[in-house]
Structure formats: structure tokens, C-alpha cells
Write a structure and sequence with these properties.
The chain is an alpha+beta fold. It folds into 2 domains: 255 residues, Bira Bifunctional Protein, Domain 2 (BirA Bifunctional Protein, domain 2), CATH 3.30.930; 89 residues, Rossmann fold. The protein has 15 helices and 16 strands. The strands form 3 sheets. It has an 8-stranded mixed beta sheet, sandwiched between helices. Strands 13-12-14-15-16 form a 5-stranded mixed beta sheet, with helices on both faces. Helix 2 packs antiparallel against helix 6. It is elongated, with a radius of gyration of 28 Å. The structure holds histidyl-adenosine monophosphate. The site of histidyl-adenosine monophosphate (HAM) has 25 residues, from strand 6, strand 10, strand 11 and helix 11.
Length: 421
Amino acid sequence: MGSELWSPLPGMSDIVWPEVSLWQKVEDVTRWIMSLYGFREIRTPILERTTVFIRAIGEGTDVVQKEMFTFEDRGGRAVALRPEGTAGVMRALCAMGQDLAGSRVYYMGPMFRAERPQAGRRRQFHQIGAESLGPASPHADAECMALMSHLLAACGVRRVKIRIHTRGAMADAPQVREALVSNLRSVAPTLCLDCQRRLESHPLRILDCKQPGCRRVVESLPPLTDWMSSASREYFEATCNLLETLGVPFEVDRHLVRGLDYYEHTIWEAVHPALGAQDAVAGGGRYRIQFGDRTIEGVGFAVGVERLLLAMQGEGISADERGGAPKVWLVAVGPDALQANLVAVQRWRQAGVPCGMDVTGRSVKGQMRLADRSGARWVLVRGEEELQAGTFRCKDMTSGQDRTMAVEEIERKLLSSGTLE
Ligand code: HAM
């Protein structure tokens, strides 16, 4: 019973030491990079009214149809754990009531999708997302992709490939859909059963089906851009040109569609070779979302943090096993020394020196073992005799050298230079 009670739910994980040091690194890098681009942090609730996601993401999408954790709260409201960040952030910005154009926000936090857990696909996962609001502009789209590329590089991920494509303006969507369906209808029997169903509900999704039969059909189709307006084609071309000018490497992938309904114009995904079948480390695009009487336009992306960490590990970046080690560890021989040590660590910590000691009543041998494990550079030991003399026995854990030092000297050195050398 114990072990079942202790394990997290399927598809969910505890994030523990030392791996958490990589999470902290990624979060620190994110704060720094976002500030360079003028994005401010926004934190929205994890639980929202289900309609927020239906409105923004689209009624017929897989995320809304199959992947949301939904339930009724005690007040009888239909609520859902957020499956992604954009919808809730748009709701929050609308609630702030300001002119949204020019708003730039980023967020980090857990998202939930009731998918079948597998490598790279979790039920609770984390995203780092950014949203830049304003009317459609290739400059905004290129800047947003440059930001994502900068963020991934700053985390140490270099072997990433950005695939981009266009959905065309939302106004083009009916004609694109119609042309696609009429091209596919005659070959419908050769499509897989899922795609035969998608033909009427979500024909675009057929483009990213992995079944060989569907792939063959898709390869023989003309590019979707053929059915878009010339303005949409020019928009895409301008975005690609700007990316080249900015030196952001990308490839055009005419089968990329993305599974959320709010997109128009530029869409993209960043993939990494260390990730296997679920190889998208990030995805984004330009969107247009109708919330009540407001239409919100913007461009953004989200990085999957679990996948980012796998990519980082694939590039040789590992968790910091020694990070956060105290500078000094105090060992007490006897109860008087124990109390005096507690007073000392409190004073030194308040002065900004990371230090540690055992507070669980271990023997001297046990305390020494703990001191060794802590990774502290210096271990300071005192008993009755040292207390009387106002000294510590100081062991340098790097050189193994032992010496006796006065408490005042230790304090002076630690508080001024942070070292006992
Ligand atoms: P998305 O492509 O659904 O886009 O998710 C973004 C990233 O989240 C994916 O590339 C992947 O790394 C990660 N991810 C998604 N589902 C899972 C899962 N079940 N387990 C682990 N990682 C996962 C969005 O969510 C959009 N809101 C992005 C966006 C922001 N577009 C515009 N603004």
C-alpha cells in the first residue's frame, strides 16, 4: 500500500534534487532573456472555466475533445485544468481591460493533458511561453521566433531545427479547406480510418498524419499556399526573408499544421534529435482569438520544459550535483557546543554565508559523515575545550589540512571574503 500511495499519478512526476537544479537554471535563463526583449511575467490560475479553452483553442481540436481534465466544481461550474497557457493568458489580459496591442508577457508553469503517457508525453508537463500582442506583422512573427531561438540557445540547446509554415489569413481558411477536401475526397478510401473521419471535421490534420498511405496522398497534393490569397503568401515570404536577415535558421515544412484552431499566418515548431518520436521541444504561431466582444491578435510560442531538459541532457548538460553546497559545516561535541553552533550558523547565515549543521542529535561520527556528504568546503568542529578557548578545529575538505582557528578570525574571513583560505 505504501509504495502505491507514494508514487505520483501516471504521467506525472516529482521534480527532485539534483534534477531540479536544471529547472532552476532554465527558469533563471528565461527571466533574463525575456527581460532583454521587454516581456513581463504573468501568472494565471491553473484552473479555468472550460469555456475559456473551448473558445480559444477550438471545439473540435484534440486538446479540447480528448485531452482536457474537466470536472464540475462545488459551485456546479464546468472547469478544466489548463492544457496550455495562451487561452488563460488572453482571458487575463482581457480582464485587465487595457489596450492589448503591444502587450508582451511570458509565463512558466504546469499544464495538463489527459494523454496516454509515453516518452516525452506527460499528463502534467511544464511550459515556458511568451505572447506578443498586436496586429499581424511579419516583423513581430520573426522577432518572436528569434526570441525562441535565443532562449533555446541560451539554455545550451544548439542542435534544434525550426520548421515553419503558414496557415494563411483566417479569412482564407474556408477556401483552403474546401480545396483540400475536394482534392482528398476522390482518394478518401486510401486514407487511414482516422483521416477519413478528419476529412469532414479537421481536414488540415490529415497533413501531419504519420501513416504511410496518408503520407503518400499528402505528398502528391499541391502546397496549401496555392489556395491562399496572394496577401497571405506575401506575408509568409516576408516572414521567411526577415528570419534569414536575422540569422535564425529554419526550414519550410509544408506539412506542418499545428493542432490548435486559433492560428493564422505563421506557425512553427522546434524539434530536437535527442527527443525521439515526440520531438517538438517548442511550438508556436500567430493567432486570432475571439473572447466575448474582443478579438485578440498576437504571436507566441511555448517550450515544453521536460523536453527542453532532455534536449539539454542530449547536448551534454547535466544537473549540478554539487550546487547549493554550504561553505562551512559545523560539528558539535557536546550539548553546549551544539547550542553555540546553532547561534553561530544563524548569525553567519544572516550575513549571507551558506552554512550547515546537524540538528537531529547525531553522534560526532554521524555529524562528520553528514559534513562530508554536504559538500561543504570547510568543516568546523568544537567541543568544551574549544568553546573555552574561543576556537574551532578547522578541516579543509579539499586539501585535508587541519588547523586551529580563532572564532573571530573565522568570522572576519567568512563575512569579508567568504573563504577561510
Ligand atoms: P503546443 O505545441 O501544444 O503549443 O505545446 C507546446 C510544447 O509543449 C510542445 O512543443 C511540447 O514541447 C510541450 N508539450 C505539449 N504537450 C505535452 C505533453 N503532453 N507532455 C510533454 N510536453 C508537452 C501550445 O501549447 C501553444 N499554447 C503554444 C503557443 C503559445 N502558441 C502561441 N502562443
